Amino acid sequence: MEKVTVKICEGTTCFVMGGGTIKPVLTALTQRYAARIEIVSARCLGACNHADSFSKAPYVLVEDEIISAADIEKVYAAIEKRLKND
Amino acid sequence: MISSELETKRLKREVLVRLIRAFLSDNFAENTRLIPYDMRPKYSDVPFRCCVYKERGILRARTLAGLGFSIEDDDEKTLLSEYAQRALQRQKPDSNPLTVVESACHSCQAARIYVTDLCQGCVARPCMNTCRFGAISHVNGKASIDPDKCKKCGMCMSSCPYGAIVKTVVPCENACPVGAIVKDERGFARIDTEKCISCGKCVSACPFGAVHAKSQVIDILKQIKSGKEVIAMFAPALVGHLPCSAGQIKDALLKIGFSQVYEVAQGADVTATTEAKDFQERLKNGAPFMTTSCCAAYNELVKKHLPEIQPYVSDAHTPLYYTAEIVKKEHPDAVTVFISPCFAKRREVLDNPNVNYLLNFEELGAVLIALGIEIETCADKEFAYQSSTEAREFAVSGGVAKSVQAAWRGEKDAIKPVIVNGLDKTSIRDLKMYAKTGQCPAGNLLEIMCCPGGCVAGNACLGALKDATKKVKEYGAKGQSLENRKE
């Protein structure tokens, strides 16, 4: 089974808008899926750099789905959805 | 930072970014006035409040705090554009660091003991029997508390076999260690500035994001724009709160327009050695214990609520004090800015003529976003001064005590450190007792930090505590220990 990749944007904008707090909590919360997912910090995904899109940071990429205004709940839900579809 | 806080922090940061963008634009006043409308335009969703007008009203107040004004003094008639002009004309920033957005304050239900629906109306009625104030009666087969008689002792709560009685709290009041934020007669939170130690616990605690720091960001950007020599001094905790190295932080600050960048860790070296000498002197004179003196909220606490402990507080100044002294000696005409993990340092900055302004981590982050500075692409710059391992780790709970131990030249086992990791009602009560009795049974060197975790857990921090602590320690490990330093 392929692993579900979760990329947490740690570009300046996403980090400042709260992205820097997601990884440790998310990693702890998804312990039981540890073998099936991979959570990584990513360089700027480029989602924030037009007009007002900074206000929807932090961005997180779960496979090919981009989550805006990401928080633990949203990212967790997206991960679970992927795992169920697998 | 827990997830529920994230939403209020994001809102506050978005306002700051927009405000800084407005400042950088060719029409600061007008673009500032438009911030609430840009964030909640016509027909937009209303994510949090009853209507778009209320949301805009609150955003207007948040913008005011960003401009550095007291929301309490606002007449609500003056346009934001007018305030923007006033912010530009202001020579000195406002003194008290915190302000409450009344329109955002939910005027929460006052703290009380409350019987929930889970009350079974049992026969034994332990709640009624334990209440010494006769506040509980049985109404319609359930316990009921008369709020006028209830003294909130909580005896009924612990006696209920179903755990059906709960105590509700007001988050800001509950978080404040000194009782400085209380509801006024209309039920809205008010800060008593005479009591407030500016620790910022209420800022993080309020789930409505109603408590704001009054920002000096416009004052600072104005100084930079005017072409003056503006020097940044950043707190050791910052290394843990941006996704880059200390050298890259320096480059990012230079890109913002600061002419020079100093690590406050440089001053922390002086604090550590001064404090070690001070402690040695005190022990020789028979002092039972000494407390550290670098936490601004603690110093404010001593001044306002705990004067009896003053004789036990180290005479060493804070790392910021020594850093600013060095900077002003080297650059007497420069404007100095401290980059801070917390709000409490505002008081210290006000009292120190060598430091002109304070920019907290959140505000710095907003400046980086507004200017489009991508830190991961910044160059890794060198610092003229190599700070020690211990100085770099000052920001982590236990770090200050460790630095004093490393700088210690006396008998090795004379130091018995006690780490007071966070100021709250309990730790303050303990400190009071140590001062009163003149002894501390647990040890003799008391390291006191207001935020549990240290400055890396400051209320204006950006990242997660665990990661930040790790990064700060990694950076510390790259330095040389004070133990090996020649006097």
Structure description:
The complex is a heterodimer of chains A (86) and B (487). With 86 residues, chain A is an alpha+beta fold. Chain A has a single domain, classed as Glutaredoxin (3-Layer(aba) Sandwich), CATH 3.40.30.10. Chain A has helices at 12-16, 22-29, 72-85; strands at 4-9, 37-42, 60-62, 65-67. Chain A is globular. In chain B, helix 12 (265-284) crosses helix 18. A four-stranded parallel sheet of chain B has the order 10-9-12-13, sandwiched between helices. Chain B has a three-stranded parallel sheet with strand order 11-15-14, covered by helices on one side. A two-stranded antiparallel sheet of chain B has the order 1-8. Chain B is an alpha/beta fold. The chains are: A alpha+beta (86), B alpha/beta (487). Chains A and B meet through helix 1 and helix 2 of A and helix 1 and helix 16 of B.
Q: Briefly, what is this?
A:
The complex is a heterodimer of chains A (86) and B (487). In chain A, 31% of the residues lie in helices and 21% in strands.
